[in-house]
Amino acid sequence: MRLTTRTNLAMRTLMFCAVNLGRTVRKHEIAEACNASENHLAQVIHLLAQKGFIRTIRGRNGGLALGRPAEAIRVGEVFRTFEAALPFAECFAGAENHCPLVGVCRLRCAMAEALEAFYGRLDRTTLADLVNENEGLERLLKVA
Fold first, then answer.
1. Residues 6+ apart with CB under 8 A from 62
2. Which domain CATH number covers 32?
3. Rounded Cα–Cα distance for residues 115 and 113 (Å)
4. Does 120 have pLDDT greater than 80?
5. pTM given for the model
């Protein structure tokens, strides 16, 4: 399994905001700290804001900040937001499924269970779990 770049950037953005809690951060600061393209990051920020994970502030002193407490942001919810558009495998693609094994394959059931276990584990992890008392992450992401 491999996560999309968008999901990876979403988590980096949220961790950056959480480490810099109480401060409005700017897109270019996140891009620099997380080694990301500002254009790609803009798309991720837009979806994060739409879903209420972050809030954006316009104007001269604008930027972004967490939209809810880090304890209320579940990693599984973030992953589902960014990964849901892409089916895990062809057999999960509904009308787009053209696999000739679909009627007899038992792998789909096993993959569905594994995927549910994966998301279940991420649902038990909050953004706060990732950043609280994580001095190494703070050294990397804290804006002076």
1. 24, 26, 56
2. 1.10.10.10
3. 5
4. yes
5. 0.88
